[in-house]
Automatic annotation (TrEMBL):
Keywords: ATP synthesis, CF(0), Hydrogen ion transport, Hydrolase, Ion transport, Membrane, Thylakoid, Transmembrane, Transmembrane helix, Transport. The keyword Membrane applies. Gene3D superfamilies: ATP synthase, F0 complex, subunit A. GO terms for biological process: proton motive force-driven ATP synthesis. It comes from Medicago truncatula. This is ATP synthase subunit a, chloroplastic. HAMAP family: ATP_synth_a_bact (MF_01393).
Length: 214
C-alpha cells in the first residue's frame, strides 16, 4: 500500500510537467510569453550543463539529462512544499517520489543504461577494454565502479530528501506556525541543488563513458 501512495505522487509530478509543457509549447509566440521565456531559459540551462559535461556530442543527450533534472526537481519540490507525512492515512504514507526507494533505483538503472549505451555506441566492443586498464587485475573493481557510481548518487538523493521531509514533519508537529517556514525554504533550495547535482553527474558519467576517462 505504501508504494501505491508514493506512485500516485509520482504521477502528480509527471502530470505537472506534462501539462506545463503542453501549455507553453503548443502555441509558441514570436514574442515569447513569460512562460515560454522560462522554458527556453530552462532548456538553455540544460544544454549548457550537457555540453560542459559531455562535450561537443552533447546534442542527443539533452532530452535525457533534461528529463532527469526536471523530474527530480519537481519531485523534490513536491516534498519540500507540502509535508505529506503529516497527512495520516489508514495504510501507508504519502511522500515525494524521490523519497521512494523504487523510484531511486529506477533512476540509478536508467543512468547506468545511458552511459553503457553511450560508451558502446561510440566505441563498439572496444569500450569494454577499459575494464582491464591499467591491468587486468582491476577487472572486478572497474566493473563494480560502473554500477556503484549511479547507485551512490541515487542513495545520496534519497537520503537528503528523506531527511528534509522528516525535519519539516517534526517541526510542523511541534511548532506548526512559524518555525517550519525557514526550514521549508531551505528545503526548496537544497532540493533544487540535489536535482542539479544528479543531472550534472549523470551527464559527467555519460561524457566519461564516451571519452574513456576514469
Amino acid at each position: 500500500m505504501i508504494n501505491d501512495y508514493k506512485i500516485s505522487l509520482q504521477g502528480l509530478a509527471n502530470t505537472i510537467l506534462l501539462i506545463s509543457t503542453i501549455l507553453v509549447v503548443r502555441n509558441p509566440q514570436t514574442i515569447p510569453t513569460s512562460g515560454q521565456n522560462f522554458f527556453e531559459y530552462v532548456l538553455e540551462f540544460i544544454r549548457d550543463v550537457s555540453k560542459t559535461q559531455i562535450g561537443e556530442e552533447y546534442g542527443p543527450w539533452v532530452p535525457f539529462i533534461g528529463t532527469l533534472f526536471l523530474f527530480i526537481f519537481v519531485s523534490n519540490w513536491s516534498g519540500a512544499l507540502l509535508p505529506w507525512k503529516i497527512i495520516k492515512l489508514p495504510h501507508g504514507e504519502l511522500a515525494a517520489p524521490t523519497n521512494d526507494i523504487n523510484t531511486i533505483v529506477a533512476l540509478a538503472l536508467l543512468t547506468s543504461v545511458a552511459y553503457f549505451y553511450a560508451g558502446i555506441s561510440k566505441k563498439g566492443l572496444a569500450y569494454f577494454g577499459k575494464y582491464i586498464q591499467p591491468t587486468p587485475i582491476l577487472l572486478p573493481i572497474n566493473i563494480l565502479e560502473d554500477f556503484t557510481k549511479p547507485l551512490s548518487l541515487s542513495f545520496r538523493l534519497f537520503g537528503n530528501i528523506l531527511a528534509d521531509e522528516l525535519v519539516v514533519v517534526v517541526l510542523v508537529s511541534l511548532v506548526p506556525l512559524v518555525v517550519p517556514i525557514p526550514v521549508m525554504f531551505l528545503g526548496l533550495f537544497t532540493s533544487g541543488i540535489q536535482a542539479l547535482i544528479f543531472a550534472t553527474l549523470a551527464a559527467a558519467y555519460i561524457g566519461e563513458s564516451m571519452e574513456g576517462h576514469h
